Amino acid sequence: MPKTIVDLVILNAKQLLTMVPSESDEEGENPLGIIEDGAVAVKDGKIFAVGKTNDVLAQIDFKKDTVQIDADGKVVMPGFVDPHTHVVFKGTREREFILRHQGVPYMKILKEENTGIISTVRWTRKAKFEELLEITKKHISEMIDWGTTTLEIKSGYGLNLEEEIKILRIARYLGEHSPLNIKTTLLAAHIIPPEYHMRDEKYVDLVISDIIPIIAKNGLADFNDVWCEKGAFTREQAKKILRVGIKNGLIPKVHADEMSDAGGAKLAAEVKAISADHLTYASEEGLEKMKEAGVVAVLLPVTTFSLGKDKFADGGKMVEMGLTVALGTDYNPGTSMCPSMPLVISFAVVRLKMDIVSALYGATLNAAKAIGLENEVGSLEVGKRANVNVLNIKNYEEIPYRIGENYVETVISNGEILKGGPNA
Ligand SMILES: [Zn+2]
To answer: Which of 118, 150, 238, 276 supports an S-S bond with 228, CB 3.0-4.6 Å?
Structure first.
């Protein structure tokens, strides 16, 4: 068989996590599909071959500028997928973070001047497209540094048509002009903007009759999300907004049951959302319904930590129930200035009671499912996008164990090296 010339190859990995269990592994002894002394070859931004180093070498040929990365003694795995972020914003809220931990309740902070989501809305509205784009690029470069190659980006700091368009255009621009894979979500129903104070229904009308149809018509969003919570949007309002989204071709997502059991999980099942996110207080019934409807559970433990709460979502139970459980950073200026999926994995193991295998799926393939990209990213398979991380650790169990340490040495997205490389 003639050999194929490839663009890039990673060789000699101590553990190569494919996230594809082998068919012969009937006992489930290798759920992460680990190949020892593994290699992955890349051509035209896609994975051309995966396997033992010798088997991959037998299939490929080199040209003068084929990049060779030696992963001897290291772990190689799919690029992280972050399925829940609010990265397009201006202004940080460190003072509020400190206040909160001096005992001021979060919902009270939200209502105060110069704190809470509203303050981010004010700053973000004032920022011009170019400025906001540059800020967002910085946020994303932090995420790349931690091995994220695919992410979802929500709007929700504009809260009027013009400003939501600005934010989603930035998200789309980054998807088109960077080697990352980006999906976008309209979150016009984040909270009620200040100019609609005490006029909730008027704002819901604006979202339904103006914002959703125009955003959808202009192809600016893939998903439509609502924060269903006391102080944000009621279940009835959320349902209305999500249904109008569906009519306009936007797939529903729900910020569900974060602070209380507001029926968000059930609602997500009812509208057949692709994911329900947070779920700290989701009822067992709600979770059952989500499972039946095939809704992915997206858990965001850093937010719970940042809020100083003791109660975390019960990820372990959700896994046991058979739900598809994904993990995200929830990167946002209020409750999670955290770009790191490895840190999220640490939290998942320590506080969400998830086993290491589920946590790693949560940060890769299951996260891809939460944004409809499971056929393109999230595992190392021939034909998928070449999104690959080389980790400077000797086995995958060190991923949650090395809390807050950045061992992500090389990051490759769509075949392009974004961090590290042959001489890392
Ligand atoms: Zn969120």
So the answer is: 238
